Amino acid sequence: MTPILVFDIETIPDVAGIRRLEDLPADLTDAEVAEHAFAARREKTGSDFLPHHLQRIAAISCVFRDNNGFRVRSLGTLEDGEATLVQSFYRVIEKYTPQLVSWNGGGFDLPVLNYRALVNGIPAYRFWDLGEDDREFKWNNYISRYHARHTDLMDVLALYSPRANAPLDALAKMCGFPGKMGMDGSQVWHAYLAGQIEEIRNYCETDVVNTYLLYCRFQLIRGAFSAEEYADEIALVKSVLAQETAPQWAEYLAAFGQ
Questions:
Q1: What is the pTM of this model?
Q2: Which of 35, 113, 127, 248 has the fewest CB atoms nearer than 10 Å to its CB?
Q3: pLDDT digits over 105-134, tens only?
């Protein structure tokens, strides 16, 4: 089977970038710099949500499914900086040429990853290949919206109509899956300031599992999975998570079907 890489990122304000772009007093703390950016964004749009280029990556979590089984992990370690995380993501693509799967990855995660690769000088030759190195990529690559190497489930299910977009948490729960655990994206910055990197990574991991489960359901309704294959895949995910020692998985499994 073609390896499947489901990915999700958690982001925080790019304080260093904001400092470079804004004429701010040098004695402002990171929290104060971020609040300055939030306030400016609220005044402009009514929301705290910063534009993509002012986001910095705090965690990247992935589900990897291939002939060797199902795994869920966060890239890097608790101590690794952003550049290492971003480099690890593109290295997986370089090594395996996987099928990418996301929820809003085309609208958020991949643009942020690409901007951060640019800022950090991270090479990503396979990802950017449009057929120069592999002719097959001319007709099916990661970049074109109408190619299939990246499936943004939110985008596909909404038929590329932003007005029809639905939240991951709601769709997961409506399908009988656990949904989000621990926190949501609006809480990540405060968790980061409190040093809760592990909690952020744990939360991100539950999101990629939710996305993979919805991808399995999508494969069922489009005929890529039979009912038996779908049931077997869900059972595999449950059995693997039951063997994981991280604290979020017991709660996650207990929420199945509620």
A1: 0.96
A2: 35
A3: 999 999 999 999 999 999 999 999 999 888
